[in-house]
């Protein structure tokens, strides 16, 4: 059971989530994030077939505004942002001075001097504020009243077109447009934490949250729209990483397989650049891999499960679930380079029970 | 229900907590914090009469180490630290450049160049790292493997003496000593998040957590020692504030009644000093107050409850519980200066239900 207090913040959509019968939560950025409605498996099948509305308000925004906003944004990430235009969203690893991951958010460029960073589960606001203060940058940094609402699933385009007009269909992947809802501007991006397609609506002003929620459900009745949430099976099948689960500040972006988002040579000004130059050159000694675990459905992965080759510990599993569609336990783990080749047979220790595990070539998706 | 994943970190004591029958959790610093064992009320009576062992590992430490450690520590807080010696613990409001509270931790001075900051619920580590980096300070900042274990209740001295020897009885309030357990040094402070007296053991190294836990329970059998946790009734009676519940980064220390911990004129170097000088001079326009709420036991305070005088909103309640010992609903709220005098009669809106509420002279304790 979870004890609900003000500290675990409700969202503009919490009343809607409760009315739709949420049955479990997690806490993410000190905010409630639904994890189950009907059941993880029923939610999973529905997500892959229909369309869901997700309360992901817990993806809080860090807003940078002012003449130094773009300079500060580049200080935070090894991804080269020079080619990024207004209207684009970039997945950006955020690193500290040692190259350790502090967050893996999506940056939204609103104008040359205004950005939103849509964060994973850590108080990135405090890092950004500390850096801005220490370097005496001319920029305002705060958390605005903006709450993302996810629309995910194969019928997302149809549902969104009914509420915002057909122009939403033209939004390209990781681009956004600005659309009207009841006289209010909303940033709508084609993005989201599933592989089923969809959008994220950056809802500015908590008061408009429930009117939008209700409009979406009304418009989508015949589409079988339901409340949903990031799905613990689907996101592992698709290899979507979870900060705090699959990586922490112990890990570099390269260990997380995010080297393709690092332009270490050209990302001039990035605080962690020096530390990452060597990693970029020599490569990491451990890396995230998809892993199949044999046997019956595994329990919830509430702690690290060590991976062994013989008596030697060679890694760990950090997320796992039974996949109905692929008929195996799908998992995400960090594996030493000596044992990370596809097909490598390992053993995983699940709270004292040993299971066979095999490194996969790629995620299932 | 709460979905348990690695991201919501277990503690070195989680196995013990589960064996003792924890029945509810909250999440604090992305770590599990027990909130109920038998029931909030049964736990409350036991805490006031016997002794409890609390898994408060979620009070993570931010360690500062290096030549600039003391300088950095003073940059973080408006409390003047010049008179603080090794062996002392200080409750220190931490503020940003606007004077907004980022955390309300306890600072532990281990030596002139080494500090622990025992934090409330926000990633203070990221603020401190950002500041240290921006100001190019010569200091290491990280989160060590240190997990506080609370011993609280009137029989705390007796239990602790049995495990650590009679010298623990001599530790003064907000002082610490270093004691041996199975060949390991442990910092033990007379402090804790209750008004019933007790200690906090800073357990260094997760591996020694359960041996210590077991030793405490074995030594305290006849003292009726039990697993416990910060108690939602007792802490409100005693006026112990909760960061995220009773105050946020919107509030200054003065609004939180923590002006006595601010030496704004002499805390040279504090980042928020300029912003707080005016507040210190003119006083805040709203402040935290004890508030009694009439009627039957109130529900859990999972969101802000507005306070009204006539039609005018004059504040909000942020924590509340039924107190068996004082036979009223005890509450903590933030009240505008026009209505904060003791005895002022207000109305509180509890999710649509109005109740009479009266500002109190002091907390119940």
Automatic annotation (TrEMBL), chains A, B:
The keyword Repressor does not apply. Residues 18-264 form the GCVT N-terminal domain. Signal peptide: none annotated. Pfam families: GCV_T (PF01571), GCV_T_C (PF08669). It comes from the Bacteria. Substrate binds at residue 200. This is Aminomethyl transferase family protein. The lineage of its organism: Bacteria, Pseudomonadati, Pseudomonadota, Alphaproteobacteria, Rhodobacterales.
